[in-house]
Amino acid sequence: MSFWQYLSNRHQQLLTDAFQHASAVFQCMVLATVIGVLIGVLTYRSDWAGNLAVTSTATILTIPSLALIGLLIPVLGLGVPPTVTALTLYGLLPIVRNAIVGLRGVDPALVDAAKGIGMSRAARLLRVELPLAWPPILTGIRVATQMLMGIAAVAAYASGPGLGNEIFRGIASLGSANALNEVLSGTLGIIVLALLFDAVYVGIGRLTIPRGIRA
Amino acid sequence: MPEDQPAQQPVQQSAEHSSVAGATIELESLTKRYPGTPEPAVDSVSMEIKAGETVIFVGPSGCGKSTTLKMINRLIEPSSGRIRINDEDVTAIDPVKLRRKVGYAIQSSGLFPHMTVAENIALVPKMVGWSKSRVKDRVEEMLDLVGLDPREFHGRYPRQLSGGQQQRVGVARALAADPPVLLMDEPFGAVDPITRDHLQDELIRLQHELHKTIVFVTHDFDEAIKLGDRIAVLREHSHIAQFDTPEAILTNPADEFVSGFVGAGAALKRLNLTRVRDVGIAEFPAVGVDEPLQSIFDRLRTSQHNELLLLDRRQRPYKWLRRGDLMRAKGSLARAGTIVHDTVTRDATLRDALEAVLTDSGGRVAVTGRRGEFVGVVDMETLMNSVQEMLEADRLTAMEHQHELAEQQAGQDQEHTRAEQEGATRAEPRS
User: Fold this and answer.
1) How does the protein's chain sit in the membrane according to the entry (chain A) (predicted)?
2) Superfamily of structural domain A3-213
3) Per CATH, which fold does B277-383 belong to?
4) Do A117 and B115 touch (CB under 8 A)?
């Protein structure tokens, strides 16, 4: 069976997998963004807390994804829980780091001005610091998403959802007629999804970064 | 602060401009100590600033002038001492509330780059809860006030403005919620000299309309002279070396530190403080270009100055005409005499006038009215005499001031010692 034939025969299954893959990455990204920005906001003011946050998230990233998921299975069981946990943890690092760098990079004169005109601590954060730190944070989110696209494939090892199932099925049946087609379709699907997500981020950037600070 | 009406500016005035006039500011032994440093950054500053007054803190960098300013709106919390604004002790109130009543403008404007000009200006009025329509009107009004066309600048972002325009918007934002007090921390430090000059003129005009209490920090003594009703010359730890009118500081610096800071040419700087309208503008024989030659001849012969000023058809100074000029030009008015290079208005400073007199061969400069029409002349002698009179008068007032200060100081010292003695006898625990 040629690759194209394989695609048209199995497109139902492939689309479902692709949708589940995208949906898992998307939900984990939302979670990672909320947690990551929160960690950034809580730690950027203090030298040691900020560094601790960056170092610990970086440490998580050094654990091979297959190993982390393997370690999570005995704790969380199979399926969605270990997948979401692992993806969210991996997504944290770029977001936490860029949030801290972005928030620390806001011109101190502007923070001073915000204070000086009578903005409360919360108003300063929400109306001045976060909007100004938003472009680097968004970059962090973009990088994290690209990374999670690949890592999400490994989640199939824990019976997670997504295009990883295609790849694992192919690898398991190497030598059989459809093995290559399965691996190829899974991999290409992930690449296409990654490109689509990136295009969406460009749009989000256009919509959410104020014209005054757009590069 | 409704209970202290009398302390405020006359009500009529504030009604006329529909804006809040200045408030008094009192600093009482304000001190800032940073942990780990033996010497305080600001050591026990006490001063009273009157309502509607512009006071300039001037001093070398690192003298604590900026720190002192930032303690007034408690961007830097004082270690000890009190701050009173309009007799209300603000040392312990919520700093956020305090800052909404105190305008704050800083160097390089401090505008938020992600907000438009209008959004920047609207920030404080919105925070204090003005209605939407009132905020909108106010933004237009403020842009107008600082000389920017509301329609053009409303929706622009700060990076689309020049440095001077940004600074104007910064001042507009500081004044938007109509605070009685305006603090300015080297606001014109980062713009080019010509723009700075314009902005200073604008500030003088604004203050003329608004009568806010302005505290302004600068390291530029010339800026201080130009803008200040009173100048506080500060040395290390924000010790006040002299706190007086620009005139008094120029003519009678309290000590060597102040005279060093005033720099050379105090008498020349004094010229900047007086306007042409304040000195005698002398009359001078003038004739129109349309007068018959014969009568011009006659006027020249009878004139005690040997000289006539020829005016053009709109009464503007045109040419200086000396006796003999006409003969040499063979009776042609068009070729006779020397063109008037430079004129001054009645609002020009004496320095400008002197400059013009020095460059003109006749030793005098023509003074013009609002539409450029000739009103009289100022000559070298008038300038010299009035400068000398001014310096003499300044010296006298400065000496009086110093006497008063010395007496006050003596009185305070006595009270201090008395209080200390009482404290010692009662053995009061002190914080």
Assistant:
1) Multi-pass membrane protein
2) MetI-like (1.10.3720.10)
3) CBS-domain (3.10.580)
4) no
